[in-house]
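Section 3.1: Structural characterization of target chains.
Under the original work plan, the team committed to producing a structural model for every single-chain target entering the pipeline before any wet-lab resources were allocated. The record below documents one such target. The sequence was received from the expression subgroup and is listed exactly as submitted; it comprises 398 residues.
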Amino acid sequence: MRQVLSISWRILVMTTAFSIASLTAEEPAREFPLGPELQNIPLEVLEEVFEGKTPPEGVRMYLTIAKGGRMGPGEGWFGPSQGRYSWNWLAERCGIDPVAATEITRAAFAGEAAWFDRLDRNRDGVISRFDFDWSDENPWVEHAYLANRLFRQMNKTGDGRLTRDQWIAFFDEAANGKDAVSPSTLREHWLAGLGGGFLPGDAPTKEMLLKGLFSGEVGSMQEGPALNAQAPDFTLKTPDGSQTVRLADMIGKQPVVLVFGNFTCGPFRMMYAEVDEIARRYRDHAAFLGVYVREAHPTDGWQMRSNEKVGVSVAQPKTLSERTAVAQQCFVRLKPSLPWLVDDMNDATGHAYSGMPARLYIIDTTGHVAYKGGRGPFGFKPGEMEQALLMTLMDQSP
């Protein structure tokens, strides 16, 4: 009897996984195929179905949450980005044997001097494999996570731009009337209330995560286009509704950088300023386009206290006009320089690119994916995207 049940569940799971892969941005709104019905399938049956195989990302994340995981780095669907270019590619481009060499010097670099400085991530005067390692185990990345967390606590306006007054206010809070702070005082002030990698009041319950998973708030069940695949086309409107933009019309002249994000995703707000700096830096070489997607932490979902502290408190929009209004709140705060569009309420573009809650893509001049950033928040790495963009530009230049 158990064997018959197992076969039935196996057919259901395989059918569901296949239906996920068929979703595209151009399809009309319909029920998202992989949803709460997963909870009716025994975990041991799901694991048996995919034994020896890699489950779809949505199934991986469901299994992680169902077993008590809280969507930490490396869990479920969180993994590395996919990029066409690497340190090996750059070494060969510079006429260097990537096997024998350990670094690329400024003199050997086959590109603009300013580009060398951007590729040299740790600013030690050479470009090495270390500069291209964006894994969670890399010491630079580990320190960057810590710096980002401290930044979010200091940035009281939640706009990703730390002011001098905010910096001094944080010191005054930690010093508590003293002229200086010790390492222990700073540490205690910084880490007060921290638990499980979350800022105080931000840790989710299992129920919150499951609701967010099935609604698409914490991420799409769709996996997005693969590296080197044709980028899904889409047509969306600007927040004021005055313009309609189609991605296909932008393909051909320059690489296109796609930026996905939303107001209630704290890491996105924190890191967006860096994306904007990159957009200004390469405005003559590439086109940048933002797509505003479904809220990650609405008040009626996985609400975060860190959002409340900076005045970000909105329910999940139920109409396009409501989503547009929230997007405009976001833009007033972030002051973006690049153009943004608002995804439709069926989240077709967000699902087609697996862009919720935040993600970065580079589309080359032929319309194919040259870089697919990891899922946000952990995979939202503007610095990695910038490296990929520079090598995309180098690849298309003589």
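The longest helix spans residues 2-21.
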